[in-house]
Amino acid sequence: MGNWRKSSYSGEGDGNECVEIANSPTHIAIRDSKAPARATLTIPTGAFTTFIDALKSAHSTVTDFARFRG
To answer: Positive or negative, the Cα torsion across 40, 56, 58, 43?
Structure first.
């Protein structure tokens, strides 16, 4: 993946907890900005909106995402 972008919900500065995304024509990748060398979650582009909607309905904050991953 190429250009990583920080979540707009992360706020300003380098110390904020956030996720980053990068996209290609076929996939969207998600990673923890504090640990960019670790594994990324890669989702087919067509399924990304469904994935985000599922997160929103199941959890109210981004920090709940870690529990969602199991």
So the answer is: negative
